[in-house]
Amino acid sequence: MIPVTTMQGARLLRYGTPADMPVQEVELPALQPGQVLIRMAYASINPSDLAFLSGQYGIKKKLPAVPGFEGSGTVVAYGGGWSRFLVGRRVACASSSGDGTWAQYMVADAKGCIPLRRSVSLEQGSSLIVNPMTAVAMYNIFEKGRHGALIQTAAASALGGMIRKLAAVNGRPVINIVRRDEQVNTLEEQGAQYVLNSTAPDFERKLAVLARKLQATMAVDAVGGALTQQLVGCMPAFSTVLVYGGLSGEACALSPGLLIFKEAQIRGFWLSLWLQKQSALSLMRLGWSVQKHLAGELKTEVRRIYPLAEIHAAIEDYSRQMSGGKVLINCNP
């Protein structure tokens, strides 16, 4: 039995601007078999959320809809089947269809819920899926490809820090690319050995030298635009660039000659599709494994927490400084 029938939630009325997203009363749908109702504790804000709000993401929902792709909370009801064992459990949760996490409650597929260890707080659990699982999945692709070193753009981000720490634990070199000198200084203070500023006049020369020296034949690119072509041009032949973001807002620039004469490969990575390929048991095991490292390699630094009623201030804060720590929404303050 569902304990509530309505809730407060942020509702996106049209794509393009968060201004068209009032916090208002939303009716909860009936639970279907395999679904659970989660009383949300915290929800995170990620670049994918901003892309969704603008209508530029790979998922478009019928509007009005509650945004938010990940969060954490407690399961309070279930729709039947094996999901009964989740009732009363604290979980990390994800949304790809229907209303999302920026609300007091969310109806979710039980398969997408990951029970939290006692040692993991609801704050950390709210950022368990998008960044940590993307970092683990892409780093595993790097390891399986037997590349000499990894190049990553947007290296000052939370996800960039996770990839860097995973590589450090395994003794693998990473070339970190950022956009500002202060980010170079920050990463070097954190122990990063190779950090380059993509706006520096000698950026391409330094990247080419390092990529050749370290045999950096794989890159993960969150920026796109002209930077994608710069990566391919500086990397050795037979290299692979994994594009997983478009922070530049521009199409990836690619010269046919680079693809042909270097036999470079450009691939996409989308966590949603990757997760769909995993079984419920595999996801549970992965989630359990990721939680072991939330205090170390996969830790998320939280900069500020806003109540749901201040969702617009939270989005503005995060948009202004996306690499300055995670901004969370307290869904039930």
Largest sheet: 7 strands, mixed
End-to-end separation in angstroms reads 24 Å
Determine the CATH topology of the largest domain.
Quinone Oxidoreductase, Chain A, domain 1
> What is the residue-averaged pLDDT?
92
Poorly predicted ranges (pLDDT <50, ≥5 residues)?
Answer: none
Q: What CATH architecture label of the largest domain applies?
A: Alpha-Beta Complex
CATH homologous superfamily descriptor of the largest domain = Medium-chain alcohol dehydrogenases, catalytic domain
* Computed CA radius of gyration, to the nearest angstrom: 20 Å
Q: Name the shape in a single word.
A: globular
How many separate structural domains?
2
How would you describe this protein?
Helix 6 packs across helix 7 (226-234). The chain has eleven helices and 15 strands. It has helices at 47-54, 122-125, 130-144, 158-169, 181-189, 203-214, 226-234, 256-262, 271-276, 280-292, 311-320; strands spanning 6-10, 23-27, 35-44, 70-78, 90-94, 105-109, 114-115, 149-152, 174-178, 194-197, 216-221, 240-243, 265-268, 302-307, 326-330. The protein has two domains: 6-127 and 300-330, Medium-chain alcohol dehydrogenases, catalytic domain (Quinone Oxidoreductase, Chain A, domain 1), CATH 3.90.180; 131-270, Rossmann fold (3-Layer(aba) Sandwich), CATH 3.40.50.720. It starts with 5 loop residues before the first strand and ends with a strand. Strands 3, 4, 5, 6, 7, 14 and 15 form a seven-stranded mixed sheet that branches. It has a six-stranded parallel sheet with strand order 10-9-8-11-12-13, sandwiched between helices. With 333 residues, it is α/β, with parallel strands linked by helices. Strand 9 (174-178), helix 5 (181-189) and strand 10 form a beta-alpha-beta unit. It holds the Pfam family ADH_zinc_N. InterPro entries: ADH-like_C (IPR013149), ADH-like_N (IPR013154), ER (IPR020843), GroES-like_sf (IPR011032), NAD(P)-bd_dom_sf (IPR036291).
